[in-house]
Amino acid sequence: MAAVLTGTAASAGQVSGTARVIQGPDDFARLRAGDVLVCRTTDPAWTPLFGIASAVVTETGGMLSHAAIVAREYGIPAVVSLRTALDLVVDGSLVAVDGSAGTVTVMDLQ
User: Fold this and answer.
1) Is 35 marked active-site?
2) Which of 4, 26, 32, 67 has its CA 20 to 30 A from that of 77?
3) Which residue ranges form the domains of the chain, and what is each CATH number?
4) pTM for the model
């Protein structure tokens, strides 16, 4: 079963990967190369994660948010302002992120 969630398209591209829900700096070490970073928001302290993540999904922000700007700089897809991300995307689930359409498909939703 899959669910398609819609936010704001913030950085173009499409990828699939394992969702890694990161609550704050104490969780940074849990992100592995190719994981999809899922979080409430980002700030400059989060920038090193953009070199590891294959995509970024945030609950807050817009086209000029930190996550959107840095994702475009790193050339990775981003969907921002997906208000239910932390409720509906389970850590470790398989997701497909379409940063051009602003969608996140949660593939193994129970």
Assistant:
1) no
2) 26
3) 3-106 (3.50.30.10)
4) 0.95
